[in-house]
Write a structure and sequence with these properties.
The protein is an alpha+beta fold. 40% of the residues lie in helices and 29% in strands. The strands form two sheets. A five-stranded antiparallel β-sheet has the order 2-1-5-4-3, sandwiched between helices.
Length: 286
């Protein structure tokens, strides 16, 4: 700075503005290295800068947003404005990164679920906030589809009266659905107990053999007798391995009561045998 600069306050002001402009350009240049939509706002929520990712992914141009209050733009979904305002206040009062999820709008009207990362920064000589919006719409949709699938599966199993269990590699139970109660089990009480505790003694070697086959990678289906506080049940027992990252970590087990069916089969067999005996007796009398 020269003596002429000191003599002329306007020259000093011009130099300060140019310096701020250079700082801003440097920040915006760095901002464009972020592939996700990103903005810088002051502590009142006014937009100071946006990156190219915001325009490319959402369709909003820089001139449509910069200078406006972020909470009043079409980019922020109306139902999430209060949440975003609260998080901005929290971030301005703390040093750590604030991470949360909200919905935002694209210019074409589509909604996008984003994970928001918000951090307090210095913008020139002022304190501001850097906000990055990472699109998690596909992840949220997959989670929602999985949740709906699990609910349908659970409902189907319970409506069909299928007892669903999972066990670890040692045969200790990790999960039981509500159908366990119809067999006389207390749902939470069976967790941690071993499968052999619920099988009649003559069937235990059979169950152990089945379990070893399943944890070696096979799917097994057979009939077996289980014993509960309500008595003995003959069940159709289906078990398959549970895999995680290619490694077997336990067993998925499904059981359905076939006691009545087995008893009916025995009665029909008995009646059929009696009918044969009567027919033979009738023939012998002729």
């Amino acid at each position: 700075m020269t003596r002429n600069d000191l003599a002329d306050p306007k020259a000093h002001q011009l130099d300060s503005n140019n310096q701020f402009f250079r700082i801003s350009n440097k920040i915006i240049f760095s901002l464009n290295f972020i592939p996700d939509p990103a903005v810088i706002v002051d502590l009142d929520g006014n937009l100071l800068a946006t990156n190219d990712g915001l325009c490319e992914i959402t369709g909003f141009a820089e001139k449509e947003l910069v200078g406006k209050n972020l909470l009043k733009t079409d980019f922020i979904y109306s139902k999430n404005r209060i949440c975003l305002m609260r998080k901005c206040i929290e971030t301005s009062e703390r040093k750590h990164v604030n991470i949360f999820e909200i919905e935002v709008n694209k210019k074409n009207g589509e909604k996008m679920c984003v994970e928001v990362n918000m951090k307090k920064i210095e913008y020139g000589k002022e304190v501001a906030e850097l906000i990055v919006f990472h699109d998690v719409t596909d992840r949220r949709n997959r989670e929602e589809t999985l949740r709906e699938s699990e609910e349908r599966y659970r409902s189907l199993c319970e409506d069909a009266r299928i007892l669903v269990l999972t066990s670890d590699l040692k045969g200790n139970l990790c999960f039981a659905n509500k159908v366990a109660e119809t067999y006389g089990f207390i749902q939470d009480a069976v967790i941690g107990k071993n499968m052999v505790d619920f099988v009649s003694k003559p069937n235990r070697p059979k169950l152990v053999s089945t379990h070893l086959n399943v944890i070696s990678g096979k799917k097994v289906e057979q009939e077996i007798e289980i014993v509960t506080s309500k008595g003995a049940f003959i069940v159709d027992y289906v078990s398959s391995p549970i895999r995680k990252e290619g490694r077997i970590i336990g067993c998925h087990i499904g059981m359905i009561d076939i006691t009545d069916k087995k008893q009916m089969d025995k009665k029909l067999e008995k009646y059929a045998f009696s009918a044969i005996e009567l027919r033979e007796a009738y023939r012998n009398t002729r």
